[in-house]
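Sample 1 of the test manifest.
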Amino acid sequence: MSPTEVLIQQLLNGLTIGAYLALIALGYTMVYGIIELINFAHGDLFTFGFLISLSLFRLYGATGTLVGFELVWLFTTVLLLTMLLTGILNVVIDRIAYKPLRKAPRLAPLITAVGMSFALENIFANWYGSSQINYPDFFPRIDILREWFQMDTYILFTTQDLLLVGVTIPLMIGLRFFIQRTKLGKAMRASAQNANAAAIMGINVERVIMITFFIGGALAGAAGMIFGNFLHTGRYLMGFDAGLFAFTAAVFGGIGNITGAMLGGLIIGLIKAFSDQYLAAQWTRAVIFAILILVLVFRPQGLLGQGEAEKA
Amino acid sequence: MSSHMLELQNVHSFYGHIHALKGVSLHVDQGEIVTLIGSNGAGKSTTIRTISGLLHPRRGTVTLEGQSIAGLPAHQVAGLGVGQAPEGRWIFPKLTVLENLEMGAFSRKDTDGIADDLEYAFSLFPRLKERLNQQGGTLSGGEQQMLAIGRALMARPRLLLLDEPSMGLAPMLVELIFDTVASINRQGMTILLVEQNALMALQVAHRGYVLQTGEIVLGGDAKELQTNEQVRKAYLGEE
């Protein structure tokens, strides 16, 4: 591979990693925007998306690569069911763990979130075991540039990469549309900016919080399933790592800011890809957190954040 | 059944351990402007919060056209037709002026009626129309007050609660706001007006109550209150 090819390859890698990190980061930032809670259990919903989608494929009896019509309908069905179930799980978590603490000091739900994360991880370990889990190639893997375009290059961009981008980008565009244009999306932003003012407008803020948890969970679930079809391996603790990176992305972009979470995700993805290539993979975390620290020193509100008083 | 639009009977409210309202009773009738005056910390805003459901009274009754609303969550009280321009205005800073107004009509489904009320709000405050796509947080204090009142009207409420609409505004703007309050009322809106500016409030209101450390100490016709010696001394700045 020529140096240019390496560079392009890492750009592609960074963008694909960044796309699913952004999807997870959105859940952190939306929940923070509305109830100022860093939901430490959020990364585990990503794991749940990975596991539940795998279970759904198995339940159907799928073992290998799907083709044609079956590929389209089964994949779509599993994706939608996965999003529905992770969304519901996130709402249930909020109901049993965070809602009773809505008026408590902020540290109480925060610690509860850490505990919730441990609880989920142990449930996953009991459900699927604690060793590495293989996620089969349900989605066909074709080297697009070589096979479709007959290009003589070592740059690898497969249909599975395309799937990742093809699912995450429309979801993010859809979310932006929902938040910016629909009545419920506006109510969500209003509740994040001033919950009491939203209440006296007739907005049921608890219902808005429920919808926020649902959407955040569904997006993390989609990310988990797409990740499985992209990297083919995971384990019960995978959400901890992904969650840490995604949380960093959310802070980087400005916690509470939707666009910031998407941007932060992409930047963290790119940093990870370039650090893996040009430094060494074991340095990647150090690099990411060093950059995070620099951002927090010089721009504590994050890239697009606007300070405490004016969120979302 | 009571025939009052709004009635509070022997209402006690607490902020944590602070006994903020100590048996407040008052009523507002259909078509009236009633003002609640009193010094800082007397419990005026607490009364408003108790009516709108942001604070729940520990004792006493709050009824809206005979229906009890004490203890209901704020969004349900709003849904029953209580609109509010709160103290401090509570504009959504990152929503545009138009989006702020749309939020005022959140509980409504009648698209045509909402469009009419939007035009009504613009006719009261043409400035809002000029600022339509500007974020709420970028407006001046006076414009934010106009937006707060316009937003409350967007719900087409049965009862409008105005909490310190003149606070922090230049004298000219204060007059504009009070003129608008009078004009809204002439078109049939029932208003409970909380003010520190007792002089202005009593000029525009039909009746008034004086609140002092959580208790109603005086109530009656606004013109009579204006000439009441106690009121003149304490709230109109006369010796």
